[in-house]
Amino acid sequence: MADDPLGCLAPFAGRWTGGGDGHYPTIDDFSYDETIEFATLPGKPFLMYVSRTRHRAEGRPLHTENGYLRRSGDDVELLVSQPTGFVEIQRARPDGGVLEFTTVTLERSPDAKPVHEVRRRFEIDGDVLVYDLWMAHAETPLTHHLHAELRRASE
User: Fold this and answer.
1) pLDDT of 5-14, one tens digit each?
2) Cβ partners under 8 Å of residue 120, min gap 6
3) pTM above 0.85?
4) With the C-alpha atoms ordered 106, 47, 64, 129, is the resulting torsion angle positive or negative?
C-alpha cells in the first residue's frame, strides 16, 4: 500500500486484549490483563497509543500510559507519557513485524522513581501482538520486567 501513510505501522492499528506476567528482583511476580489500542487518524502517519493494565486476580488497575507510534524516516518512534512522571522516546528500525525499540530519551519529573533505562519490543504475527519490556531501576541493571501476548479484538 504505497498510498497508506501508516506504511509498516498499519498492521498494529486496532484494539488488542490479553494478558501477561511481570517480574522484577525488587517486587513479587504478578499476572495482569491488558488492553492496548493503536488508534488511527485518517491520513496521518502515526497511531495514538493507549495501554491499560489490571491485576489479574484482584482486578485493580496497575498501570496506564499514553502516546504515539509514528513513522520517522525509515525508523519508527514510540513516544510515551506515564502518570508516574516519566516520558520516553524509543526508536526502532522495522524488521518485518518486529519493532525492537531502544531508548533515545528518558526523562522523569523530580518526584518520579529512579528509572534509568527502558527497552521495549513489539512483535506482530497476524492477529497476535507479543511484547516485552526491560527496565533499569535504582540499583537494578537492565532486567526483563514484562511479557504479554495480546490478540486483536473484534470491532
Assistant:
1) 999 999 999 9
2) 78, 90, 99, 101, 131, 132, 133, 134
3) yes
4) negative
Q: Give residue for cell 490478540.
A: 151
Give the angle subtended at the CA of 31 by the CAs of 27 and 36, to the nearest 5°. Answer: 110
For residue 27, the one-letter residue type is I
Helices (H), the chain: none
Torsion sign over Cα 93, 12, 129, 141? positive
Q: Look at phi and psi of residue 85 and say left if phi exceeds 0, alpha if psi is from -120 to 50, else beta.
A: left
For residue 139, the SS3 value is coil
Residue 92 grid coordinates: 526502532
